[in-house]
Amino acid sequence: MKKKVVILSCVLWASAVAFGVSRMLDYETSPGDQASAPHRWPADSRIDLSVDRATLIMAAHPHCPCTRASMGELGELMASIKDRVTVYVLFVKPAGMHENWEKTDLWRAAEGIPGVIAVCDEGGIEARRFGCETSGQVVLYNAQGHRLFQGGITMGRGREGDNDGADTIYLMLTGGKVDRTTSPVFGCPVFDHAKQDGEDTLCGRE
What we know:
Layout: H1 2-28, E1 54-60, H2 67-81, E2 85-93, H3 105-111, E3 116-122, H4 125-129, E4 138-141, E5 147-151, H5 164-174
Parallel strand pairs: 1-2, 2-3
Antiparallel strand pairs: 1-4, 4-5
C-alpha cells in the first residue's frame, strides 16, 4: 500500500511539473498585441524624424521585466547599425506617477546604448501616436517618413537570441533583401498600470 502511495505521489508530482512547464512555455511564446503604427510619420509627434537616416521608435514599460531582453537585443542591433539609424525609446509614464517613476534599470540600460535617446513619454501620448500596445514594440521609418517595419526584436518573452525582427531591421538598413515588414512582439501591455506604486500586473504577476 505504501509503495502505491509513493508511486501515485510521483505521478502527480511529474504531472504538475509538466503542466507548469507547458504553461510557462506557452506564456513565453505568446505574442502581445501588434502595433498599428501609421504608414506615415505622425505629423503631430514631438519626436524629430531624422532627415538623413532612418528613425526607430521603441515603446517601453519601465517596470516590465520582459523588456530587458528587448533592450539587450537593441544594444546588439545598434552595435551593427548605429550610424544608419536614430533611435528613441519611449518610456511610458501614466499620469499621477511619482517623480522619476520611469527611471528604472531599463531607462539606464537604454541610456547606456550608444546612439539611443531615452524619452519620458508622459501619459503615453507618443506611444499612442505610433500605435504601440506592447512593451518592446519597435517601429522603423525611413528619412522620408514612410513606415518600413513594426514588431518585436526578441524570440520570446524575456528571451534574447536570433530573431526575425532584429534580422529584418538589420537587412533593411544595410541594403539586404527582406521578406517581411512585421514580426511578433513579446512583452507586457505598455498601458497596463494596475497599481500606482510601479508594481503593475505584469508578466503573470498578480
